[in-house]
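Students often ask why inverse folding is considered easier than folding. One informal answer: many sequences map to the same fold, so there is more than one right answer. In these notes we will look at a single instance of the problem. The structure comes first.
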């Protein structure tokens, strides 16, 4: 998926603002997230876009008051489910089975 520049910039600004609020250096956050300084710099400046796994690490290492808002923004930009939900589903067969059951119920309700 080709992410629009404005969306990259919006996400990058939010991440950078929270990093600065948390008083973390770019290098420290990059190290905490097991990524390069240059990659994080590109993301913050709207020149790159994080994968779901990188985004989850960023959110985990920043103190957002409303993490759900960030997950939903990422999902809206990517036109997919929120990355925290995807991560959870990928690790839980019972959750996947429950979602499938709900999907079948929804099909029958239409």
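Output (designed amino acids):
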């Amino acid at each position: 998926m080709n992410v629009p520049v404005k969306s990259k910039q919006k996400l990058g600004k939010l991440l950078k603002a929270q990093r600065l609020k948390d008083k973390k250096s770019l290098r420290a956050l990059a190290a905490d997230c097991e990524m390069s300084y240059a990659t994080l710099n590109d993301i913050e400046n709207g020149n790159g876009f994080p994968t779901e796994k990188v985004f989850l690490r960023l959110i985990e290492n920043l103190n957002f008051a409303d993490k759900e808002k960030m997950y939903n923004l990422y999902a809206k930009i990517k036109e997919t489910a929120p990355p925290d939900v995807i991560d959870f589903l990928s690790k839980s067969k019972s959750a996947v089975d429950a979602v499938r059951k709900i999907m079948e119920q929804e099909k029958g309700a239409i």
